[in-house]
Design brief:
With 124 residues, the protein is of the alpha+beta class. It is 23% helix and 23% strand. The chain is built from two helices and three strands. It is globular, with a radius of gyration of 18 Å. It has a single domain, classed as Fusion Protein Consisting Of Minor Coat Protein, Glycine Rich Linker, Tola, And A His Tag, Chain: A, Domain 2. Strand 1 and strand 2 form a beta hairpin. The termini are far apart.
Length: 124
């Protein structure tokens, strides 16, 4: 039986969040109260770290790296780790929905990565 060499997997590169340009939305989306309630509930329900309230408000920001395809649609998302996988994946899904039909075509490039940021804010 012939020996087939195994390719060594390339370790993933860290995302340089500061270098990613913002995702060019036509209309900047804002999470609804229902979306924010879901995030707040998930943080309380799970072992996720709860941010410290400041001025009576709790704020959670989730950054998502977004790859745009040739057709101007989102092809991949990578949420920035905040220690709460459920909220990270929820935010990534929201970004896909928010981007659908809401990007400025002349400002997106095929194969380019962008950064979307979602801020969830509620009373402590």
């Amino acid at each position: 039986m012939p020996i087939v060499p195994v390719e060594t997997p390339v370790p993933p590169r860290a995302v340089d969040w500061a270098a990613l340009p913002p995702l060019p939305y036509r209309h900047i989306p804002r999470p609804t109260p229902h979306m924010t309630r879901f995030v707040a509930t998930e943080l309380r329900r799970t072992a996720c770290p709860m941010p410290v309230a400041v001025g009576g408000r709790v704020q959670v920001q989730v950054d998502v790296a977004v790859l745009i395809g040739a057709d101007g649609l989102v092809r991949a998302t990578i949420p920035r780790a905040i220690g709460c996988p459920t909220v990270e994946q929820y935010a990534a899904g929201l970004v896909v929905s928010f981007a659908r039909g809401n990007l400025v075509p002349r400002l997106v490039s095929e194969g380019a990565w962008y950064r979307a940021s979602l801020a969830f804010d509620w009373a402590a």
